[in-house]
Amino acid sequence: MDKVRLWKTFEWVRATQIPELNDDEGRLQVFFNEVSPSDIKQGLLGDCYFLSVLSVLSEEPKRITRLFLTDKQNNLGVYGIRICKNGEWKEVVVDDYIPCWKDGPAFSKAHGNELWVILLEKAWAKLHGSYERIEAGFAENVLRDLTGAPTEVIETSDETLWDSVQ
Questions:
Q1: Which among 46, 63, 43 has a CA at the least distance from the CA of 54?
Q2: Does residue 25 surpass a pLDDT of 70?
Q3: Is pLDDT at 29 greater than 70 in this prediction?
Q4: Residue tagged active-site, from 44, 48, 127, 139
Q5: Is residue 107 part of a domain?
Q6: What region, left, alpha or beta, does residue 138 occupy, with left being phi > 0 and alpha being psi -120 to 50 degrees?
Q7: Which strands, in side-by-side order, build the sheet including 97-101?
């Protein structure tokens, strides 16, 4: 099945209605215990560049948790997330409607029943116009936008690189 036909089969479902996202008592959690690189699981979306940066940043959990203006589940299902775009921190507001396929999230998710991975990916997609527009990208752009720090790419295949390092 091609991507367009596959994506047309997705249903948008509130996170509260997706059993695997709820804890044993039927509650949603943005964070369960501590953020960890092993929380992240890629779905059908080709955004491994984005998820790899989440993994790196989650080595120090505060780098992830500080991005969330709303860090608890709420009845409205609305969450505020901070992303630095073009050098300016912006609040990206997302809801908890999740694209689903075969009774579960179609795109990224956490290995446990927490929302932080799904919500960050949704905010990133919203900032860029759609999920489709975040397929394939560059980790340095994500790193810059989630930390506010400048990034630089150093081409390591350049023969003169070692001369300049020494």
A1: 63
A2: yes
A3: yes
A4: 48
A5: yes
A6: beta
A7: 11-14, 97-101, 104-105
Tokens describing residue 14: 């509130």
Does any domain span residue 161?
no
- Do 126 and 85 meet the contact criterion of CB atoms below 8 Å apart? no
In a domain, 163, yes or no: no
Q: Does residue 8 lie in a domain region? A: yes
Q: How far apart are CA 47 and CA 106, in angstroms?
A: 13
Per the structure, how many domains does the chain have?
1
Phi first, then psi: what are they for 78, rounded to 5°?
-120, 135
Cβ(143)–Cβ(53) under 8 Å?
A: yes
The pLDDT tens digits of the residues spanning 38-84 come to 888 898 889 999 999 999 999 999 999 999 998 888 888 899 999 99
Distance of CA 13 to the CA centre of its chain: 18
Nearest CA to 39 among 121, 100, 157? 121
Task: Say whether 100 is catalytic.
Answer: no
CA-to-CA distance for 84 and 118, rounded, in angstroms? Answer: 18
The CA distances from residue 126 to 14, 69, 152, 158, in Å, are: 17, 16, 25, 36
What the block records as the tokens of 22 is: 């709820």
Domain containing 145 equals: 3-153
Neighbours of 72 (CB within 10 A): 10
